[in-house]
């Protein structure tokens, strides 16, 4: 990393310089070697911890990416997400535009935004977006559990601008998920702490082991990547007995109901069918049995207490929990897929397809050249099949 830090400090170009360095010390015949120290365009070839040294830029890019997402402009949305992801992987703050030379995924538009931030501390386009009524409204509506961009857009077009507008509109029929989303809005829009995630892990662990002593529970999502806070807690539950995993979630749900802590449950039975692999749809949701829950968490169960709102005297809060239940022979793929981050997953799949002629999803890895599936029992196996250096979960915060 020192090479990078040095050139950043002096505001000189990064990868370009490395290329010269390598060419100077190697024989001149043959194709020019790839600069070893260069930052890859793929997040799965970068190590990205939760320490983000470029938050002023990445927050701005996220606003613009989200705004493009609301307008269904996938190209620019992805461009800003990729640019943010590259900056997140850097070991220090970008001090000037010259220091970004040689970095991948930074185009004219992203650089213009960075330039403004470097000069004035903010960018006009970001300020304009943040004060835009449509952006503000869609952001507000999609913050409700069960409300996606399509529904938010529909409500916006009908002239609705606030939660009270929606709740007062007699022609709007909220579904169960949205009703729960509004009912527990304050609680589930407040971040879940690591201690709360641990307490929920204990509750689910107890349920799994009451069903079968060799049941397996694994924490995934942001908390597995070392995040201090999350919007929910994601778990994988399974058992070594193939076929038995599909009955786990219904039994867990039953137990949570009897304990009186199940506030909402959307259960989706497994539609996993080996004969339909590989799945060609990019970023499609997987077919394993899963459930999206809202649970009641007691303060007494959380070490150090709840992450409560100020002035809230209740000794409980509502929290979002996701459970997914893959068969044991798919465990590694499910774990890799659910650990995220989203950008890391996107780039793993893109890398597999573009660089290796393979298809990767949460169920399997398929080699299109050899026309065969590549088995894996651990995440390391999958990285090895892809010819990638292993990236630890806490380095996948792309
Ligand atoms: N995931 C994915 N593609 C999606 C949705 C989810 O690859 N469309 C994966 C990546 C992360 C994991 O599932 C869990 O999703 P979230 O809980 O939404 O993300 P998170 O990283 O856990 O972040 P948060 O802390 O906000 O929960
Ligand atoms: Mg999560």
UniProtKB/TrEMBL annotation:
Main location: nucleus
Keywords of the record: Magnesium, Metal-binding, Nucleotidyltransferase, Nucleus, Terminal addition, Transferase
Location of this chain's protein in the cell: Nucleus
EC category name: transferase
Tagged with keyword Nucleotidyltransferase: yes
Molecular function in Gene Ontology: DNA binding; DNA nucleotidylexotransferase activity; DNA-directed DNA polymerase activity; metal ion binding
Gene Ontology annotations of biological process type: DNA modification; double-strand break repair via nonhomologous end joining
GO-annotated cellular components: nucleus
E.C. number: 2.7.7.31
Reaction catalysis annotation: DNA(n) + a 2'-deoxyribonucleoside 5'-triphosphate = DNA(n+1) + diphosphate
Binding-site residues, Mg(2+): 232, 234, 322
Cofactor section: Mg(2+)
Function: Template-independent DNA polymerase which catalyzes the random addition of deoxynucleoside 5'-triphosphate to the 3'-end of a DNA initiator. One of the in vivo functions of this enzyme is the addition of nucleotides at the junction (N region) of rearranged Ig heavy chain and T-cell receptor gene segments during the maturation of B- and T-cells.
Family: Belongs to the DNA polymerase type-X family.
Protein name: DNA nucleotidylexotransferase
